[in-house]
Each structure stands twice: as C-alpha cells, then as structure tokens.
C-alpha cells in the first residue's frame, strides 16, 4: 500500500508538471514583430473594427469620449464579473509602456507582459487570426490617444475561475489560429472579409454557440447563440437564416437599418457605429464573406 501511495503521488506530480508545461503562457517569436513600423492610419481602422472603444471606454461614452480608454465597464457573466482594464497610453495605469511585442502577446496569445494568462473575455481567441502588422499599426494609433490615470479594477470571478492558471488549459483546447473558412474559392474581397469577421471584428464571439467550457463551437460558426445580456438570442447570420442580399448587409452595417426598416439595437448598435469609421470597402468585404460561410440551420 505504501508503494502504491507513493506511486500515485509520483504520477500526480508528473501530471501536474506536465499540465503546467503544456499550458504555461505562450509568447510570440520576437522575430514576428521585429522591425515593424506602425501605420496609425491603418491602426485607426484596426481600432474601430476591433471594437476597442466599445469595451474600454467609460460606459455610455459617445463621440470623442470613446477615445479615452479609461476602462471600468463591467460585464456580468456566469463565470463572474469581468471589468474592462485601462488601455489608454498612460504609462503607469494604461499600456503606454508596452512594446509592440507586448501588445502582440496580449492580442494573439492572451499573455500579459508579466507572463500571466488573460481571460478570454478579452477576445484573443478571435484576435489570434490577425496579422502582426495590424498589431503594430494599432499600437501606433493608440499611442496618439489621450491618457487616463484611472487604475484598473480587479475582476470579481467565481471559484474556480479566479485561478488564471486554468486558462492555460482553456487555451490548449480552444485557442486555434487556423481560419474557420478555408481559403479555397475566396476572392480577395472575401478573404479581407474573413480577416475582419473571424479576427478583428470577432463576430463569432457573440454569434456562435459555446460549449460548457466557454469555447466557441467551430462546427456551428455564426449559427446564433443565447444572448449573454438577457432574454432572447443572438441571431444566426449564416446564409441558412440571413437571406438578405449582399447590398442589404452592407446597408445594415452602414446605417443600422434592416430591409424591413427595423434598426440595430444593443451591442449591434455599437458595431454599426464602429464600422461607420472604416472604409466602405471593408463593410462590403464583410458582407461578401458572410454570403460564403457554410449555411447552418
């Protein structure tokens, strides 16, 4: 019995060590961002498509106030309350002291400059699809924004989700950089739309169902999901249910009006506002991609 006990203890130690090794916070190869020069003009497009202000500006901000990324907005979920951090260029309370590599680690791999896991409420499971140059451009733009000295408030998470170490296992299961819709047969405009929808726009974070661990069900990509903010459902936007023309989709993303003259509300109103800051060609690319995703009933 003593040998059995010692053997089980040894297996437990080996298993724990293996888990830590497999799920430790990953970092990008520094060569991936070495020498990149950020273009703030493209960075502004990245900023708006990525929805940065929707989460990180103060609640109910409008106009220029949306560029003050003070944080503090609260997101009540089944895992607890997530509080958006200050990501202004303030060097002490924000991310002004971050390098492009720091931001790339955060956005592409969910790893903080301190080497800890971020929670996937920060949608790095989608941002993993974006290009390092877009990260450099975003950093160049964000460095032009006003700083805020407001301290970031801690999350208020339920046990056991308050243990960040568990996020390593979540990433091992669900952080997948492979495109959801394959390249084959996609035009350049549709490929641009894929980059925007799967990556920067992180549309699947709301429009796709999740498994019990909170991972997106890639087999049901964009097929609709429960509304995390209350009753109702986030709609299926695959061609099985979204039967609008490409022009209808573009109009909705531009004005917020549906073909039946209903209007976007709640979080989708923020998306429409964000997309009003980007070139019309990007809204057209999103619509073109949505017509090509697999139809799921």
Automatic annotation (TrEMBL):
UniProt superkingdom: Bacteria
Residues of the Cytochrome c domain: 38-146, 188-294
Coiled-coil stretches noted in the UniProt entry, renumbered to this chain: none
PROSITE patterns: CYTC (PS51007)
Keywords: Heme, Iron, Metal-binding
Pfam entry (one): Cytochrom_C
A molecular-function term among this protein's GO annotations: metal ion binding
Gene3D superfamilies documented for this protein: Cytochrome c-like domain
InterPro entries reported in the protein's UniProt record: Cyt_c-like_dom, Cyt_c-like_dom_sf, Cytochrome_c-type_DH
Protein name per the record: Gluconate 2-dehydrogenase (Acceptor)
Species of origin: Rhodobacter ferrooxidans
Lineage, top ranks: Bacteria, Pseudomonadati, Pseudomonadota, Alphaproteobacteria, Rhodobacterales
